[in-house]
Design a protein that fits this description.
With about 120 residues, this protein is mainly β. It is about 0% helix and about 50% strand. The chain contains no helices and eleven strands. Strands 2, 4, 5, 6, 9, 10 and 11 form a seven-stranded mixed β-sheet that branches. A four-stranded antiparallel β-sheet has the order 1-3-8-7, with no helix packed on it. Strand 5 and strand 6 form a beta hairpin. The protein is globular.
């Protein structure tokens, strides 16, 4: 059974940092893309950051580029999203995602971690 367990969400003041973690079990972690998405009520879920299995392909949403950093520790089966200089518009539920397209499409999601940026 595949599980993605997120941690690290919470309330943070504008300008502050927060780090999300996503620990994965039940699959061969280093074979999967790791992605972070976020969603606010009434809007579609949007991709925030992406990292390929061997770290050679990294992508960020323009709105977070330079402030957020995605990373992964294959020895710990864990992905991270370091968020710095947080803004109120970063308030959302953040979801981690493991994905691969071969030999078949596999798409797994965490339960979501709420991040609230407010003074």
């Amino acid at each position: 059974q595949v599980q993605l367990v997120e941690s690290g969400g919470g309330l943070v003041q504008p300008g502050g940092p927060l780090r999300l973690s996503c620990t994965v079990s039940g699959l061969f972690f280093r074979a999967y893309d790791m992605n972070w998405y976020r969603q606010v009520p009434g809007k579609e879920r949007e991709l925030v950051a992406h990292m390929s299995p061997d770290d050679d392909d990294i992508w960020y949403l323009v709105a977070v580029k330079g402030r957020f950093t995605i990373s992964r520790d294959n020895a710990k089966n864990t992905a991270y999203l370091q968020m710095n200089s947080l803004k109120s518009e970063d308030t959302a539920v953040y979801f981690c995602n493991s994905w691969r397209g071969r030999p078949a499409v596999e798409d797994y999601w965490g339960q979501g971690a709420r991040v609230t940026v407010s003074s």
